[in-house]
Design a protein that fits this description.
The longest helix has 60 residues, at 12-71. This protein is mainly α. The chain has five helices and no strands.
């Protein structure tokens, strides 16, 4: 339209009027472009914020779930049960290390929104700080559970060894408490040989 208007021929009065109208049209179009650009920027800000919030809720939910697992009591009744729990906990520790990379990327996205002066920067910063604290709590709980499981394994191992030793002693006690010394030299010799073997045991 502007090109056609510039090429138009005719008397000065209508040409001036046409030029004014085309100038108004150009200004309106520039204003529309500026409004569209502004809206696009606001929509991108909103999308980035909502994506961050969605990722944040998922991350926080994951951390809270793992905290709950780490807070659970060690309910194993024997060494085998404790060893199974230790295996699960080792898998959890590997998962924590792997998930830490995801969390770092999430924190970096949040920090980039703050650096870009996002309108909700204060909210983003508060959430990132909260997530960092949750991660610290999770690491402490995981370390405490690892120690708890190691202590439980040691205790079950000790009780198992003690029970085994006690039952062995109960089994051998009648052999050393007997009054039987044999009836003759060969039977006394056999009892003495058995006693020596027991003594070595």
């Amino acid at each position: 339209l502007v090109r056609q208007g510039a090429a138009a021929e005719g008397p000065p009065q209508p040409k001036q009027q046409l030029t004014q109208q085309l100038t108004q049209l150009e200004e309106a179009y520039d204003s529309l472009l500026a409004a569209a650009k502004d809206r696009k920027a606001r929509l991108e800000d909103a999308r980035n914020l909502y994506q961050f919030l969605e990722d944040h809720d998922e991350e926080e939910g994951w951390v809270t779930d793992k905290q709950r697992i780490c807070r659970a009591d060690v309910a194993a009744k024997d060494l085998r049960g404790v060893m199974a729990l230790r295996q699960k906990h080792t898998a959890l520790l590997h998962e924590l290390r792997a998930r830490d990379h995801v969390s770092q990327r999430h924190r970096a996205k949040g920090q980039s929104l703050i650096d870009a002066k996002h309108p909700k920067s204060a909210e983003i910063e508060r959430r990132l700080s909260s997530l960092n604290q949750q991660w610290e709590v999770l690491r402490e709980l995981a370390a405490a559970r690892e120690k708890q499981l190691a202590d439980a394994a040691e205790a079950h191992q000790f009780y198992g060894d003690a029970n085994e030793a006690e039952s062995w002693m109960k089994e051998k006690r009648p052999l050393v408490a007997t009054e039987d010394c044999g009836r003759d030299a060969p039977s006394a010799g056999a009892l003495l040989a058995r006693q020596r073997a027991l003594h070595d045991d």
